[in-house]
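Fig. S4 source data, part A: sequence.
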Amino acid sequence: MSEKKRVVVLLSGNGSNLQALLDQEHHYSYQIVGVISNAPEAFGLERARQHKVAAIGLDYKNFSSRSAFDQRLAAEVGRFAPDLVVLAGYMKILSPGFVEKFTGRLINVHPSLLPEYKGLGTYSRVLADKKPRHGCTVHFVTPELDSGTHILQASMTVRPTDNEESLKQRVQAMEHRIYPLAVHLITSGRLLLKGGDVLLDDHPIDPLGYQLQENALELA
């Protein structure tokens, strides 16, 4: 295999998606080289240290503004010379300047079938609206919240017995499968962003992203 591509992960909390990325990187074409959090106490940083990955905590409260924080964040990310920057439960809205600096190599996973249910509280909103399906979307990041071009989207049936916690657990299990896959597709060169369109193996994909179902979360 050719040299693995360098990935930096940004997170704010527990880091379960980081764990999935770390656990699966030996199968794929990427290597996590750095993890940065806006919350120095985030357990995700400990996960990184346990895997001997550089871990940096930047306390958001120590900066005078979002712009000042993001300038420092961009500098720290840049030190790792990443091929891709991955948001994994990063709970701060990034400034336009940061997003512009990493445009085309900055991705996120969101717990809804975008463009529905942008923002927070997706599980309770889906249940309140009695939606038949829920899921998650991997997308490129733009300055507008949860609005970048889609990469992969995985969906499942909402069960009559589901509550917020059960739905969250099931969606997160899907995220742990499709996020490492999406990172691999990009770092292997199979998936490209060209002029706002996503190409997989040189073929345009659905504007909603490559569609995967709960019982078939594999991509050839």
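Fig. S4 source data, part B ends here. The domain at 109-139+150-220 is CATH 3.40.50.170 (Rossmann fold).
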